[in-house]
TrEMBL record:
<dbReference type="InterPro" id="IPR003594">
    <property type="entry name" value="HATPase_dom"/>
</dbReference>
<keyword id="KW-0067">ATP-binding</keyword>
<keyword id="KW-0597">Phosphoprotein</keyword>
<dbReference type="GO" id="GO:0005524">
    <property type="term" value="F:ATP binding"/>
</dbReference>
<keyword id="KW-0547">Nucleotide-binding</keyword>
<dbReference type="InterPro" id="IPR003660">
    <property type="entry name" value="HAMP_dom"/>
</dbReference>
<dbReference type="InterPro" id="IPR005467">
    <property type="entry name" value="His_kinase_dom"/>
</dbReference>
<keyword id="KW-0812">Transmembrane</keyword>
<dbReference type="InterPro" id="IPR050980">
    <property type="entry name" value="2C_sensor_his_kinase"/>
</dbReference>
<keyword id="KW-0902">Two-component regulatory system</keyword>
<feature type="transmembrane region" description="Helical">
    <location>
        <begin position="41"/>
        <end position="61"/>
    </location>
</feature>
<feature type="domain" description="Histidine kinase">
    <location>
        <begin position="266"/>
        <end position="462"/>
    </location>
</feature>
<dbReference type="InterPro" id="IPR036097">
    <property type="entry name" value="HisK_dim/P_sf"/>
</dbReference>
<dbReference type="Pfam" id="PF00512">
    <property type="entry name" value="HisKA"/>
</dbReference>
<feature type="domain" description="HAMP">
    <location>
        <begin position="206"/>
        <end position="258"/>
    </location>
</feature>
<keyword id="KW-0808">Transferase</keyword>
<dbReference type="Pfam" id="PF00672">
    <property type="entry name" value="HAMP"/>
</dbReference>
Length: 462
């Protein structure tokens, strides 16, 4: 929007209303238009074909078809006019065999000279009848005598009667003589070939878009920590370049994760060795309040070290496996009850979901531990619906103000209000939980709980 405003301000003042109209039309098309690449590409192919065919049909029907039909009608009328000229300028008496033979043998018309009689009353005319309009116009212009036309009664022939001074000339002409009757062949061929070409284009277009879809699926799977080794670059050159770039990016990220994991393993080993020596030395010291305080400090340092290493390491080195969420919630309920937490857990829907099991269990454990610290009652509810896994953890504690909920996810951040910093902890529980949820392609939301405290809602794609 900012870029468009800058572009609008750079335009001359007379062109700015046109730019506003363009913006409105573009937004409307974006709102009602298709969102998938295949559908958009198909429309890019179909719309020009439809417009081109519409123009061709209009030009053909309005120019070629109408012009040819008019010329054919004028030719038939000129032939009738020649017979009228003979009847009016030659003294044939009562023998009109010459005119009738001229019509059948020379002009291809069935002509009959009738005695003088009134013309039949006009018949209802089709509004869009090209034959009736063309013949009527040509007779009025070329012959200029009273006439009667029947273009509806007989499907194969057109009957024309011309009122002369002493006679009535009746002529039957084939419909194919008065207008271009093969126009439907042109339309059939045009629409048939277009349909065949569109089907072929759809097949080729689907093959071209399939590599893009596979690349998008691989990127999504990689973001969720799932295997992406099946991706093979294919398709157009640009799609192959994007696939090669993605594969190289994935390798660099995996190499970086491997190096970080190796470094953290070394740091963890060295620090744990020092803490183990502290514990052994404290075990050899005589008991007392100072010794117990030092033991608590060492235990807290151990827990903090585990949290720091877990936060820094992440969960990228764990494989995705089919996980029974119902069983996981039961395990978390049992573990929380052992520590004295009043907790109730239940699950609805299909339990088997592809996840990093240990990481997901740590995520939920951190949220449950956080809820049990500040509330006396904890309820956990999991449900799988419409391809999304949602787990809510509710407590009846003091909660977190809405303005401070984003800060609760910041690493090493300790809230000063209701959930204060008097309790032990590293300040990484929620940060670790959110990182795990995001690594699965999901998110954690903090909301008001029906129990009166805080609700942590985990939402992941299944």
């Amino acid at each position: 929007m900012a870029n468009f405003n800058r572009f609008l301000s750079s335009l001359p003042r007379p062109l700015r209303p046109l730019a506003h109209i363009y913006e409105v039309v573009a937004r409307a098309l974006h709102a009602i238009g298709p969102k998938r690449l295949y559908t958009r590409a198909l429309l890019i192919i179909l719309l020009p074909i439809i417009i081109l065919q519409s123009v061709l049909v209009f030009v053909f029907m309005e120019r070629h078809y109408d012009l040819v039909s008019r010329r054919m009608s004028e030719a038939v009328v000129r032939e009738i006019a020649s017979m009228v000229f003979i009847l009016e300028n030659l003294d044939l008496g009562s023998d009109f065999t010459l005119v009738e033979r001229m019509g059948s043998e020379v002009l291809g018309l069935s002509a009959t000279v009738l005695p003088p009689e009134p013309l039949p009353p006009p018949t209802p005319k089709p509004y869009f009848d090209v034959i009736d309009q063309g013949l009527s116009r040509a007779i009025s212009t070329t012959i200029g005598k009273p006439f009667w036309i029947d273009t509806v009664g007989n499907a194969r022939f057109v009957e024309i009667r011309i009122q002369l001074k002493d006679h009535v000339l009746r002529v039957f002409a084939r419909r194919s003589q008065t207008f271009a009757s093969n126009s439907h062949i042109f339309l059939v061929w045009m629409f048939t070939t277009s349909l065949v070409l569109v089907v072929i284009a759809m097949l080729f277009l689907r093959n071209q878009i399939r590599p893009v879809v596979r690349l998008a699926e691989a990127a999504e799977s990689f973001g969720k920590g799932r295997p992406t080794d099946r991706l093979r670059p294919s398709g157009a050159r640009e799609v192959r370049q994007a696939s090669h770039a993605f594969i190289e990016m994935r390798r660099r990220i995996e190499r970086q994760i491997e190096q970080r994991t190796t470094m953290l393993a070394g740091v963890s080993h060295d620090l744990r060795t020092i803490l183990t020596r502290f514990r052994l030395q404290l075990a050899l010291l005589p008991g007392g309040s100072e010794t117990e305080g030092m033991k608590r400090d060492v235990n807290e340092m151990t827990h903090m070290l585990e949290d720091y290493l877990a936060f820094a390491r992440g969960d990228g080195d764990e494989a995705v496996v089919e996980t029974d969420m119902a069983l996981m919630l039961e395990e978390l309920e049992e573990e929380a009850e052992i520590s004295g937490t009043d907790i109730r857990a239940r699950y609805e829907g299909e339990p088997m979901i592809p996840l990093r099991r240990n990481a997901m269990k740590r995520c939920l454990s951190n949220l449950i531990t956080n809820a049990s610290k500040f509330g006396g009652r904890v309820e956990v509810h999991g449900i799988l619906r419409q391809g999304w896994l949602t787990v809510t953890i509710d407590d009846d504690g003091p909660g977190i103000p809405a303005s401070s909920r984003d800060d609760a996810f910041r690493p090493f951040h300790r809230l000063d209000e209701a959930r204060n910093q008097d309790l032990s902890g590293s300040g990484l529980g929620l940060a670790i939980a959110r990182d795990i949820a995001r690594s699965h392609g999901g998110e954690i939301y903090l909301e008001d709980s029906p129990l009166g405290g805080l609700r942590a809602r985990v939402r992941l794609p299944a």
